[in-house]
Specification:
306 residues; 11 helices; Arc Repressor Mutant, subunit A; six-stranded mixed β-sheet; 2 domains; single chain; D-Maltodextrin-Binding Protein, domain 2
Length: 306
C-alpha cells in the first residue's frame, strides 16, 4: 500500500476538496485524483463522495481514514526517533537525469565534506518526468532535469503547474564523444554524414517525454546503427572499448575523458541544444550542504571545455 497516497487522502479529508488539497500538497489536481482512484481500487471501495461543499468520506472511507491516521501517526513517531538520533546529521537529497559532469561534481563535493560520520545522503538517477514527480511528492528535496530547447515551453508549463521552482544550471550544445582510438578522434570536428558508418550508443531514458514525442514525430530510419544502454557507466565503458562507436553527450570533464580514454568533438552541421535546470518545491529552503554541492557543480561546469 502506497503510504504517500495515504497521506494525500488524509489531506483531502482535511480540506474537503481535491483542488485545495492539491494546492496545499504542491501537486496537480489530476495527479491527486489519480492517487485517490488507485487507493480506492486497492482497497476495493470508494473513499470519497461528492457533496455541494466538495468531497466527504463515505462510510467505508471514514473507517479507512481512521486506520490511515493511526498508521501515519505511528510512522511519525518512528521518524522522530530517527531524527532525534541523527540530529547533527548532514542531509542531502538529489535526483537527476544521468550526466557525467553531475556525478563527477558529486564525487568532488563528497571529498570536501568535513564529517563522514554524520552524513545522510540520497542521490539517484532517473528520467526527467520521474524526477519532477518525486520532487513534487517531497521524496527528494532537489532534482536536476534536462530538456531540449524545442520542448522548453512544455517543461516550463509543467513545472509552473506543479508549483516547482526552476533555476537554470547550464545551457549547452551536445557533443560527439568517441574512443581515443576511433578514426574520428583525429578530426577537429565532425559532420553528421561522417557518423553514418559508426554505431551510436544511446539512452532514451534520461529525457523521457521529449524522447517519446520525438519518436512519434520523426521518420524512423531502419538502417541506423544503435546500441541502447541505460546505465551511464556501461555506456562510457562500451564507448571506450569499441572504436567504431560514438555517443551524443553533454560536454564531459577532462578527468572523465582521461579516465575512459575518450575525446569529444563538435558536430558542425547538427546543433542539439539542451538545458539542465535545478528544481525544488516552492516551500523548500536550501541548506548549507545543498549550497556546497551547487557551488561544486558550478565549479565543475565552468572548468569544462565546450
Amino acid at each position: 500500500m502506497n503510504l504517500m497516497h495515504m497521506k494525500y487522502i488524509v489531506e483531502v479529508e482535511k480540506y474537503g476538496s481535491v483542488t485545495k488539497a492539491a494546492s496545499a500538497l504542491y501537486m496537480g489536481q489530476p495527479n491527486l485524483s489519480k492517487a485517490i482512484k488507485e487507493m480506492e481500487q486497492e482497497i476495493g471501495t470508494p473513499i470519497f463522495k461528492r457533496s455541494v461543499k466538495g468531497v466527504v468520506p463515505t462510510e467505508k472511507g471514514k473507517e479507512f481514514l481512521k486506520y490511515a491516521k493511526e498508521i501515519l501517526a505511528q510512522l511519525d513517531k518512528i521518524e522522530n526517533l530517527h531524527k532525534e538520533s541523527n540530529i547533527n546529521a548532514q542531509s542531502f537529497q538529489l535526483l537527476f537525469s544521468g550526466s557525467s559532469y553531475i556525478t563527477y561534481a558529486f564525487a568532488e563535493f563528497l571529498k570536501k565534506l568535513d564529517n563522514y560520520e554524520n552524513l545522510d545522503i540520497n542521490i539517484n538517477e532517473t528520467s526527467a518526468l520521474e524526477t519532477i514527480d518525486k520532487v513534487v511528492d517531497d521524496e527528494y528535496k532537489l532534482g536536476v532535469i534536462r530538456y531540449s530547447l524545442p520542448y522548453e515551453k512544455l517543461f516550463v508549463s509543467m513545472l509552473e503547474e506543479r508549483k516547482l521552482v526552476a533555476t537554470e544550471i547550464w545551457t549547452y550544445d551536445e557533443m560527439v564523444a568517441v574512443s581515443k582510438y576511433s578514426p574520428l578522434a583525429i578530426e577537429a570536428e565532425v559532420q553528421s554524414d561522417m557518423l553514418e558508418s559508426y554505431v551510436e550508443i544511446t539512452d532514451d531514458r534520461a529525457l523521457g517525454l521529449q524522447s517519446l514525442l520525438a519518436k512519434k514525430s520523426a521518420v524512423q530510419h531502419n538502417d541506423k546503427k544503435q546500441i541502447y544502454v541505460n546505465e551511464r557507466e556501461s555506456k562510457l565503458n562500451a564507448l571506450s572499448a569499441i572504436s567504431d562507436t560514438y555517443m551524443w553527450s553533454t560536454p564531459l570533464p577532462e578527468q572523465v575523458l582521461k579516465r575512459y580514454g575518450l575525446t569529444q568533438l563538435k558536430c558542425s552541421d547538427t546543433k542539439k541544444t539542451y538545458c539542465d535546470v535545478l528544481i525544488c518545491r516552492k516551500d523548500y529552503r536550501m541548506t548549507d550542504i545543498d549550497i556546497k554541492f551547487l557551488e561544486e557543480l558550478k565549479r565543475v561546469k565552468n572548468s569544462i571545455k565546450n
